[in-house]
């Protein structure tokens, strides 16, 4: 029994540490795309409104979520059979993981698009045509991002390829905006199309549009950075009850014994577990301040 309790505490501790520091890690590594099957296929057109988990991601998600659910259920019930039955709910976390990776990919593309807009605006101000500015922007992005499979580099290379095949730049950007499913990219495409058709000052319009969209993206990033500390605190609070229950089981098993015997004890622990899950879900919804495309 002593070894099981220690294993449970260590397992939850390792998960808790990785879970708590994940919000800060996302801000450190937000410049490079995750190494998924999609990023290794530069010729495939990515639909950014849909994220399909790879086999490795599915297996890792199921294993980690099943292990965590098993440990949590074992702490609250001290019954291996009940803990095993509870761990079968790990398939629910596939949808959560898919949504998390989808939002992360859109946030990365949004940040990379801001850098592309600044480079495009500078190139237009230097007197280049819009088509040549696109090519120049690709070169700037390749110097900025070391990974050639970075989302924005892949997308701009696709646009350049379409331009060389005789397709107009408005259609190429519109196709990209439809796949990206993001307001900023869609608005930029619409502004470019209107400006081309109406014969306005393309350089000035693109410069002002790039400046406005860039300021909007920077404001969104500042808001996300400000709530990072609160998200960190909320995850600590979500993790703390598990540690308290595990420590009480280890230090005072006689004191906790009535909670593991009879219908009343199991009902109390079930109610506590449900409340803990509801609090976890609520704090995640409150702290999940992300830029939604629609």
Automatic annotation (TrEMBL):
It is a multi-pass membrane protein. Residues 119-247 form the Type II secretion system protein GspF domain. InterPro entries: T2SS_GspF_dom (IPR018076). It comes from the Bacteria. It is found in: Cell membrane. The chain crosses the membrane at residues 62-94, 234-251, 263-284. Keywords: Cell membrane, Membrane, Transmembrane, Transmembrane helix. It holds the Pfam family T2SSF. GO terms for cellular component: plasma membrane. This is Pilus assembly protein TadB.
């Amino acid at each position: 029994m002593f070894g099981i309790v220690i294993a449970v505490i260590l397992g939850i501790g390792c998960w808790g540490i990785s879970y708590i520091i994940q919000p800060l890690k996302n801000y450190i590594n937000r410049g490079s795309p995750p190494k998924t099957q999609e990023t290794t296929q530069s010729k495939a057109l990515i639909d950014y409104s849909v994220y399909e988990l790879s086999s490795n991601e599915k297996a890792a998600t199921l294993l980690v979520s099943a292990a965590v659910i098993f440990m949590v259920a074992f702490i609250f019930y001290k019954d291996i059979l009940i803990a095993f039955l509870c761990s079968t709910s790990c398939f629910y976390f596939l949808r959560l993981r898919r949504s998390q990776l989808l939002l992360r990919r859109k946030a990365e593309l949004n940040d990379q698009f801001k850098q592309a807009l600044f480079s495009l605006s500078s190139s237009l101000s230097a007197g280049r045509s819009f088509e040549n500015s696109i090519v120049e922007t690709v070169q700037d992005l390749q110097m900025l991002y070391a990974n050639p499979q970075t989302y924005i580099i892949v997308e701009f290379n696709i646009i350049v390829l379409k331009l060389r095949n005789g397709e107009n730049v408005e259609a190429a950007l519109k196709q990209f905006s439809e796949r990206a499913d993001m307001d900023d990219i869609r608005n930029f495409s619409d502004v470019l199309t209107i400006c081309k058709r109406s014969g306005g000052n393309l350089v000035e319009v693109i410069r002002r549009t790039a400046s406005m969209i860039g300021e909007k993206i920077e404001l969104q990033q500042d808001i996300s950075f400000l709530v990072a500390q609160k998200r960190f605190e909320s995850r600590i609070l979500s993790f703390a009850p598990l540690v308290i229950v595990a420590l009480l089981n280890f230090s005072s098993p006689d004191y906790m014994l009535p909670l593991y015997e009879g219908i009343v004890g199991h009902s109390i622990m079930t109610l506590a577990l449900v409340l803990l899950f509801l609090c976890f879900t609520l704090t995640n919804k409150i702290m999940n301040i992300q830029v939604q495309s629609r």
